[in-house]
Design goal:
The chain is of the alpha+beta class and 552 residues long. It has three domains: 20-191, Orthogonal Bundle (Arp2/3 complex 21 kDa subunit ARPC3); 197-250 and 270-395, no CATH class; 397-544, 2-Layer Sandwich (Heat Shock Protein 90), CATH 3.30.565. It is 66% helix and 7% strand. It has 16 helices and seven strands. Helix 6 (163-189) packs antiparallel against helix 11, helix 8 runs antiparallel to helix 9 (226-232) and helix 8 packs parallel to helix 11 (249-268). It is rod-shaped and about 125 Å long. 36% of the residues are buried. The site of adenosine-5'-diphosphate has 22 residues, from helix 15 and helix 16.
Length: 552
């Protein structure tokens, strides 16, 4: 037996764990670098001798990373917080308090990430709920704990600081940073947000970003007079609103971050409309405006996503409905097939029985007739199936010119055994020489079979049961009617008689008339029903003549 050399496979768990170590290391380095960068940026806005930053995006970076990549990132977050605290607050905060700040940040971020997962927060910001969750959880746990530890550390280190005032400043700085940074990181890195961002094309986000950068640089570069720069600072709102309504969420969050970064940097350097009131107050009022901007952008974006998913649900519902519709059409079709096949199959059985009897009695001439009928019934069954298949496939059957009496004769042949059994007297008034009609013959024969069977059933066991078939030229059409002197149709049934499954018989299917009407209408004719005076019902249908009468 030939042996197949197996490739040397390294144990997969080793490569997996190596991969996951590389993955963890790369995410940790990203976190530390980003945390350090935004921490550094936060201290650019140190407003007073105590060095409390008025914008602190670092906690938002930590929350986004730990939420997205798990608690394993807490170690990296601890290192980053320690690094930043040691570098920027060493001269303001005693070591014990600095360690307390690190621990509080870790606890706040860990708790925040846990709560976001616990409450089913979605990184796509698809629901208003997601916006509310991020702000409430971020504000309460991540920012709340970090601010408490920060304020406490500062208050211990500097005697002239009141804890409550410091806490308030720290909390606002933290929450503002979180509102600007966390949505960008979460929407880009979470749940494939980055890939979806490009669905919208390049130009719309590019134009929005370009306009936003131009407007904010103009406002916060100090070139404009405050009277003009202040109202112009609100121009970012329509741009962010447009992005929220027309672009994926990551684009909107990025626009908000860019607007915030330019506005905060300008104001931090004492430029722009908010700079006049002194750094602390000006940054606080700018923070209020930015918080509103972020809230507007996130809320609108979530509302748009909610509307889009409602539309998607509605579309899916419609799809399901149309699938159900197709299935029910299939059900009707198979019920119709069963109905239409019933007649030729019954005829097949009775002609087969008759043939055996005739053979036993040696009546070979009659046997030849019966076998011919058997053959034509089998042919009719096969033709019915073929036409139903063509109907299901949506193709129209071929119509050929046909003499009216030629349509009626095979039907009478087919029903002869039943008519005989029921002792029904047939009255045929189909003059020879009537103009030809353009029909698919088997379909019109099916209509006649259905009408005649109904008439026989309406007659029941009446001894004087009579059915009359009439054909006459009516302008450009041929009119055919089937009249019986049976029970007639109760008035209240007339309106729904032709609807599928409308039946008043214990073993009826309620399909004969609905199929017949569809077949007649497919020929461009009409099928109607009425009661006749003296009792009984009349069904009439029309068919187009092959060559419409010129004189009509
Ligand atoms: P089915 O015969 O299976 O009930 P049809 O669609 O052929 O289904 O007929 C629907 C109903 O119309 C019948 O149940 C019957 O009540 C009524 N109907 C049809 N033809 C006649 C007739 N010639 N006389 C009286 N009632 C009729």
């Amino acid at each position: 037996m030939p042996t197949v050399p197996l490739p040397q496979v390294r144990p997969s768990h080793r490569s997996e764990s190596a991969d996951s170590r590389i993955w963890l290391a790369s995410r940790s380095v990203m976190l530390i670098a980003l945390y350090y960068a935004v921490g550094l940026w936060g201290f650019v806005f140190t407003p007073d001798p105590h060095g409390i930053p008025l914008v602190w995006p670092a906690t938002g970076v930590g929350l986004a990373f730990v939420y997205l990549y798990g608690y394993r990132l807490l170690l990296a977050l601890g290192i980053a917080t320690l690094l930043v605290t040691w570098q920027f607050t060493a001269d303001m905060m005693p070591l014990a308090e600095a360690i307390g700040l690190v621990m509080a940040t870790l606890a706040g971020v860990g708790l925040g990430a846990w709560a976001l997962r616990q409450f089913g927060f979605s990184p796509r910001f698809e629901r208003l709920r997601d916006v509310a969750l991020l702000l409430v959880i971020g504000g309460l746990s991540a920012s709340g704990l970090a601010a408490t530890a920060g304020a406490w550390g500062m208050a211990v280190g500097m005697e002239d600081l009141r804890f409550t005032d410091t806490w308030w400043l720290c909390w606002m700085a933290d929450l503002m940073g979180l509102m600007l940074v966390a949505p960008v990181l979460i929407s880009w890195l979470g749940a494939g947000g980055g890939g979806r961002a490009f669905d919208t094309g390049f130009w719309r986000p590019a134009v929005l970003m370009g306009s936003l950068v131009v407007v904010t640089i103009l406002v916060y570069s100090g070139t404009l007079d405050t009277a003009l720069a202040m109202p112009l600072s609100y121009a970012v709102f329509p741009l962010v609103m447009l992005a929220a309504l027309r672009c994926p969420t990551p684009i909107t969050t990025t626009l908000m971050l860019v607007a915030g970064a330019i506005a905060l940097s300008g104001t931090g350097w004492g430029l722009g409309p908010f700079a006049d009131a002194g750094l602390e107050r000006s940054l606080l009022s700018l923070n209020a405006q930015l918080a509103l901007l972020v809230l507007t952008g996130l809320v609108l974006s979530a509302l748009r996503s909610e509307r889009e998913s409602a539309e998607a649900r509605a579309r899916q519902h419609l799809d399901e409905l149309s699938r159900a519709g197709r299935l029910s059409t299939l059900g009707e079709l198979s019920a119709g097939l069963a109905h239409e096949l019933n007649q030729p199959l019954c005829a097949l059985t009775s002609y087969a029985h008759a043939s055996r009897r005739l053979l036993e009695k040696g009546r070979l001439d009659d046997l030849r007739d019966a076998l011919a009928q058997l053959d034509s019934s089998a042919h009719r069954a096969a033709e019915t199936v073929r036409q139903m298949r063509a109907f299901a496939a949506g193709s129209a059957p071929e119509k050929i010119p046909f003499a009216p009496e030629e349509l009626i004769r095979p039907v009478l042949d087919l029903l002869r055994p039943e008519l005989k059994r029921c002792h029904v007297e047939m009255d045929i008034d189909v003059p020879r020489g009537l103009p030809m009609v353009l029909v698919a013959p088997v379909q019109i024969e099916q209509v006649l079979v259905n009408l005649l069977r109904n008439a026989m059933e309406a007659l029941g066991a009446r001894p004087d049961g009579r059915i009359r078939i009439e054909a006459q030229e009516l302008g450009s059409e041929l009119g055919i009617s089937v009249t019986d002197n049976g029970v007639g149709i109760p008035e209240e049934r007339l309106a729904t008689l032709f609807e599928p499954f409308a039946t008043w018989k214990s073993e009826g299917m309620g399909l004969g008339l609905s199929i017949s009407r569809s077949l007649v209408e497919a020929h461009g004719g009409r099928l109607t029903a009425e009661n006749v005076q003296g009792g009984g019902a009349r069904f009439r249908f029309t068919l187009p003549l092959e060559v419409p009468d010129a004189g009509a």
